[in-house]
Specification:
Helix content is 77%, strand content 0%. It starts with a helix and ends with a helix. With 555 residues, it is mainly α.
Length: 555
C-alpha cells in the first residue's frame, strides 16, 4: 500500500482486510468507487474483499478492471501484481488454465521488460504454480525462495516453499516434498507472513499434495491446525478446499457420515463460484452414493459434468456398477488420454480400467493394468496405489483360476489397506479374497466375508454389505444385515414397493397407488422378497419398520 493510499479514505478498507473484517472492507471500497468508479486501488481492494467473502467470479472481474486502470496510469507495479493474482485465481479457483497461462505471460512481460525487481520472485512463484512440468516448477520455486529470503519477504518465501513441496511430491520425492509443505504450513500459521492469503496458499498446497500421496493423517492434522484461522477469517476458498479434501480422506477411511457432511458443505460453498471444486465435491459425493447403493442419486450428482476430467473416475464407477463396462471404458480412455502418463492422479482411473477389462474378459490387458498400477505405486513410494495394484493383480489371478497366486497378492494388498486405516478398501479386499478362495478353503473364505460384512455395516456400505451377506448365504451361513438390507440391489421402483409394503398395503392397493398392473406389482414384490432374503410380506413390513427406527430416533 502506497503512502498516498495509507492517508486516503481507502485506509480503513485495507485495515479491515488485515483483521479479517471483509464486509466492512467491501463497504469502504464500494463507497470509494461510487465517488470514483475507476480508482484502481479501490477496485483491487474490493476484489480482495469479495474473494474472501466467497464471490470469486466477481473478484476476478474487479481485479481485471483494476489491472486495466493501473495500465492506463502507467503504474506497472500495480498492474503486474494484479496480473499475478489473476493467474493464481484463474487456475486455482476457476480451473481456467488457459486464462492463467495468459496472465502469467502478461505479468512476465511487465516484470521482465520493465525490470520490476520487487515482483521478480512473485513471478517465479506463479510460474511454478502454473507449470505442468514439476521439474521446471522445482527450479523456479527454488529461485523464488532464495529471492524471498534475500529480500526478507516471508510471504513469498513461505508460499513458494509450499509450491516447492508440490513439485517434489509430483516428482515422486514424497519425503522431501512433505517436509517442505510442513515447514511452509508451520511458518504461515505461526504468523511469519503479513498476508493472510499466505495461509490459504500454503494450506491448499499442503492438503491436496498430502492426499495425493496418501498422507491422510498429516492432511487431517493440518486441517485441524488451520481451523482457528478459518474461523477468524472465514475464507470460503480455504474452507471449501479443506472440506472437499477432508471429505475425500473421510470417504477413504470409512467415516462416511462425516464425509457426507463435509462434502455437502463444500457443495454449498462452491456453488456458482469454484467450478473445479464443485466438480470435485460432486464426484466424491457421487462415489459415496455408489458405495451406498444409490446409483440413481450418483448419476444426478454428475449430470451436466460429464465432460469435466474431475468426475471421470466417479462417472466410470457409476457405469461399472450399473453393468455398463463399455461405457465406463470409454470414459476412462478419454480421461487418461488427456493426462500425463505415470502421474499419481491416474491411479484411480487405471484401477477402474482394470476392472472394466476384467468384466470384458480381457485378462491379459487387465494384468498389464495391474502392473502399471503397482509400478506407479513403487515409483512414487505411495502405499495406497501399491495396495490397489496388488489387489488388481489378485483379481486377475483369481479370474484365471489361480487361487494360490491370487491369495499372495491379496494378502499384500490387505496389509497395505489395514496399515493405512482404509477400512472399506480393506473390507473390499477381504471379499475379493473370499471369492478367490471359494470352495477350496471354505472356512477361511467365510471368515474373511464375515469380517468384510462387519466393516461394511459399520461404514454404511450397503451395496457391499448386500454382496457380502449374499456370499455368506450361498455358503450356508446365516448372514443378518444390521443396516437397510438390499439398498444396494433394489431398483428405485422396488424401493417404492418396499416402502408401501411397510405401510401394510396389499398388491391391489400398491397397483392403484403406483398406477401399475397387479401382475407387475406381484412380480416386483417377489423380487423385493428374494433380494432381501425375506419369506413374507409381513417380514418386509418388519424390515421397513426396523430400518426407519433409527431415523425416527434421530429426529
Amino acid at each position: 500500500m502506497s503512502d498516498e493510499v495509507a492517508t486516503s479514505p481507502l485506509q480503513p478498507g485495507f485495515a479491515a482486510l488485515a483483521v479479517g473484517d471483509f464486509a466492512t472492507a467491501a463497504e469502504v471500497f464500494s463507497a470509494a468507487l461510487q465517488a470514483e468508479p475507476s480508482l484502481a486501488e479501490a477496485l483491487a481492494g474490493l476484489a480482495d474483499a469479495e474473494w474472501w467473502l466467497g464471490h470469486l467470479v466477481r473478484s476476478v472481474e474487479l481485479r481485471e478492471r483494476a489491472y486495466a486502470e493501473f495500465r492506463r496510469r502507467n503504474e506497472a507495479l500495480g498492474a503486474a501484481f494484479c496480473a499475478i493474482g489473476l493467474a493464481i485465481h484463474h487456475r486455482a479457483n476457476l480451473g481456467n488454465f488457459a486464462a492463467a497461462a495468459g496472465w502469467v505471460a502478461r505479468a512476465a512481460t511487465l516484470v521482465e521488460e520493465l525490470q520490476i525487481e520487487p515482483l521478480r520472485g512473485h513471478l517465479l512463484m506463479v510460474r511454478a504454480a502454473c507449470s505442468e512440468d514439476p521439474v521446471v516448477a522445482e527450479q523456479w520455486a527454488r529461485e523464488a525462495i532464495e529471492l524471498g529470503r534475500r529480500s526478507g519477504d516471508a510471504d513469498l518465501e513461505l508460499c513458494t516453499l509450499s509450491q516447492l513441496g508440490v513439485a517434489l511430491v509430483q516428482q515422486g520425492r514424497v519425503a522431501e516434498g512433505v517436509a517442505a509443505l510442513d515447514e511452509a504450513m508451520a511458518g504461515s500459521l505461526g504468523g511469519e507472513g503479513r498476508n493472510p492469503n499466505t495461509v490459504v496458499f500454503t494450506s491448499c498446497n499442503m492438503i491436496r499434495s498430502c492426499t495425493s500421496c496418501a498422507e491422510f493423517e498429516r492432511a487431517v492434522q493440518w486441517i485441524r491446525a488451520a481451523e482457528r484461522f478459518a474461523q477468524r477469517f472465514g475464507c470460503p476458498f480455504l474452507y471449501a478446499e479443506c472440506r472437499t479434501v477432508y471429505g475425500r480422506v473421510l470417504l477413504l477411511t470409512g467415516e462416511w457420515a462425516r464425509a457426507e457432511q463435509e462434502l455437502t458443505t463444500a457443495l454449498a460453498l462452491t456453488q456458482d463460484s469454484v467450478p473445479r471444486l464443485q466438480a470435485e465435491a460432486r464426484a466424491l459425493l457421487a462415489e459415496l452414493r455408489v458405495a451406498q447403493g444409490r446409483l440413481h442419486d450418483a448419476e444426478l450428482l454428475l449430470a451436466g459434468l460429464e465432460s469435466r476430467r474431475e468426475v471421470a473416475g466417479a462417472l466410470a464407477l457409476v457405469h461399472l456398477r450399473a453393468g455398463r463396462a463399455a461405457a465406463a471404458a470409454a470414459v476412462l480412455q478419454s480421461a487418461l488420454q488427456d493426462m500425463e502418463p505415470g502421474g499419481l492422479d491416474t491411479a484411480q482411473l487405471v484401477e477402474l480400467r482394470g476392472e472394466c477389462e476384467l468384466l470384458q474378459g480381457d485378462l491379459e490387458t487387465a494384468a498389464a493394468s495391474a502392473v502399471t498400477l503397482t509400478d506407479l505405486g513403487l515409483r512414487h513410494d505411495c502405499r495406497i496405489i501399491r495396495a490397489r495394484g496388488e489387489r488388481l493383480h489378485g483379481r486377475v489371478r483369481a479370474a484365471a483360476g489361480q487361487a494360490t497366486a491370487a491369495r499372495a497378492h491379496l494378502d499384500v494388498a490387505l496389509r497395505g489397506f489395514v496399515e493405512l486405516d482404509l477400512r472399506v478398501e480393506a473390507a473390499r479386499t477381504r471379499m475379493v479374497l473370499a471369492e478367490a478362495l471359494g470352495a477350496a478353503e471354505t472356512e477361511t473364505a467365510v471368515a474373511e466375508a464375515r469380517a468384510a460384512l462387519s466393516a461394511f455395516e459399520r461404514a454404511g456400505a450397503h451395496a457391499d454389505a448386500d454382496g457380502a451377506a449374499s456370499f455368506l448365504r450361498t455358503r450356508g451361513v446365516r448372514a443378518s444385515r444390521l443396516g437397510p438390507r438390499g439398498e444396494g440391489t433394489l431398483t428405485r421402483r422396488e424401493r417404492e414397493i418396499l416402502a408401501l409394503l411397510g405401510e401394510g398395503l396389499s398388491n391391489p392397493e400398491i397397483a392403484e397407488r403406483l398406477h401399475l398392473s397387479r401382475k407387475t406389482v406381484e412380480h416386483h414384490v417377489g423380487h423385493v422378497l428374494d433380494k432381501l432374503g425375506l419369506r413374507s410380506r409381513a417380514e418386509a413390513a418388519v424390515e421397513v419398520a426396523r430400518t426407519r427406527a433409527p431415523e425416527s430416533a434421530r429426529k
